[in-house]
Amino acid sequence: KNEVEQSPQNLTAQEGEFITINCSYSVGISALHWLQQHPGGGIVSLFMLSSGKKKHGRLIATINIQEKHSSLHITASHPRDSAVYICAVNNNDMRFGAGTRLTVKP
Amino acid sequence: GAVVSQHPSRVICKSGTSVKIECRSLDFQATTMFWYRQFPKQSLMLMATSNEGSKATYEQGVEKDKFLINHASLTLSTLTVTSAHPEDSSFYICSARNRVNGYTFGSGTRLTVV
Hints:
The complex is a heterodimer of chains A (106) and B (114). Chain A is an all-beta fold and 106 residues long. Chain A has strands at 4-7, 10-14, 19-25, 31-37, 43-49, 52-56, 59-64, 69-74, 83-90, 94-96, 100-105. Chain A starts with a strand and ends with a strand. Helix content of chain B is 0%, strand content 54%. Chain B has no helices and 11 strands. In chain B, strand 5 and strand 6 (57-58) form a beta hairpin.
């Protein structure tokens, strides 16, 4: 079993839909990250969380430390949100989920 | 702020040659940099952690003599793939710890060994 599990693996949505991507982890962590990887491979760090909830624009990330679970939400999704979203946890180093490939259709 | 510049973005090399990939932190000092490898449709895998002025720490299964890491300054870490083979073809990406949001990633290097 992977230390970091993401679901779903693939997600297709229509423009405007509300999107949720889930991440569960099995190890102790100091922080959890949500990353966005574009088709060219470049990676952008979206959030770093150690508790609670963070919001940036249309993106919201939450974490429940007791349940070892985090969610990434995208409101009013847009085709430009199409990317792979990766959950990563770190203590001394980072461990990555397999990613969720999101496709938002116009 | 907190930008990491990675070069080259793409490189094609012949089997048996060496390739150097550079990662520079442009506006902050990175005492620790991380090197990852990603095969197609797979997740990022940590290869090694480099600390400025000391030897890199390699993950299990990563050959330190093949993947040479140098972190000689607080703003530059390099990964050299020595005697590259086709199976080394992959996407290599670095990241550095920063004080803003934890980690900043380079843009990645797609290596193709022919």
